[in-house]
Amino acid sequence: MARIMIINWQWKGFEPFKFATGSQEEIEKFTNGWNLGAYRKDQVRSPEGYQLGDYVIPIRVSVKNLDFEDRQHIWKSLLQHWKKHWFQSKEGKAHQFLLLCHDKQGFDQKMWPKVKIDNLHWAIFGSGKGILYGQQGGLINASPAAGQYFMAIGKKAAYWEGGEVVGVNEERFDRVWNSYLYRTSDKLFHLRAKIFQGALPKEPPAQQIQLLIKDYLEAYNSPGEPRQIEGVDSYYSFSNCQDIRDDKYHLPDSLREKLQEYADWKESPAGKKHSIFALSQAIIKEMNQLMVKWK
Questions:
Q1: 147 alpha carbon, distance to own chain's centre
Q2: Fewer Cβ atoms within 10 Å of its own Cβ: the N or the C terminal residue of the chain?
Q3: How do residues 96-112 score in pLDDT, each as one tens digit?
Q4: Could you give the percent of the chain with pLDDT greater than 70?
Q5: DSSP assignment string, the chain
Q6: What is the pLDDT of residues 163-173, one digit of tens each?
Q7: Please, what is the Cα angle at 164 between 161 and 170, to 5 degrees?
Q8: Is residue 271 over pLDDT 60?
Q9: What are 100's strand-pairing partners?
Q10: Gap between the terminal Cα atoms of the chain
Q11: Rounded to an integer, what distance in angstroms lies between the CA atom of residue 169 and that of residue 154?
């Protein structure tokens, strides 16, 4: 199985396909002949130079300056075409795909139609922020005007020979892939925010926060495939976070004990309710110290 990352961005040297009307004729003109073999594939390469089977596909498609309905129609048509010729094709269905779209190309979260594709994950990026950008450890320059892989000395996201890309940095590819696929960092920031919101001195912990903490601890502590704790929204569950035991997400024993205490907290007599506030504050303090690693 290969991991295939498709990045729709203002790539330098790529003539953009700009939809002007969103008509069916225009969509067909765009999609005719497009399949996995029609794109440039930038192979992921180990530091030793070995090709690993994964790759990045740079594309440049724009739907900006059209109204929402036309943009959504185009997006749905493209996904249906790519589903047939890429994601669920004979070649593609054995692989995993990650589709990343730049917001300045006219794409946004609300446009995603109800097209079920099991081996596709997707996200919107932009504004020079987020793990995809090179200064955050990712792959591309913060400025779309540069339109190429991040190339800071000693921190190159790609390897070049004769003006051509001959490989993509394995470590940076993995970092971007895991961040978008599992969203572990986002979920940890969400967990911290919920604990912060629930840290009221006159209230016991909300059950939903306790369930979320239990879900996190279940995923972190489980040696096998963790179960999703009942009552936790799958969007925020840690049960699919296969990177949760990476060094950047290491959970210190002191913080694990505090989280477990919070998860097991039972509403106590009024005089003891203030201790949950102190516990919340202690948890937040320790989580704050780990935030730099999560980004």
A1: 21
A2: N
A3: 999 999 988 888 877 77
A4: 93
A5: --EEEEEES--TTPPPEE-SS--HHHHHHHHTT-SGGGS--EEEE-TTS-EEEEEEEEE-EE-TTS-HHHHHHHHHHHHHHHIIIIITSTTGGGSEEEEEEEGGGT--GGG--S---TTEEEEEEBTTBSTTBGGGTSSB-S-TTT-SB---TT--SEEEETTEEEEEEHHHHHHHHHHHHH-HHHHHHHHHHHHHHT--TTSPPPHHHHHHHHHHHHHHH-SSPPPPPTTS-TTT-STT-TTTTSGGG---HHHHHHHHHHHT-----GGGTHHHHHHHHHHHHHHHHHHHHH-
A6: 888 899 999 99
A7: 80
A8: no
A9: 7, 123
A10: 28
A11: 12
Q: In the numeric block, which tokens belong to residue 20?
A: 């002007």
Place 15 in a pLDDT band, splitting at 50, 70 and 90. Answer: confident
- Copy the structure tokens of residue 239: 């049960």
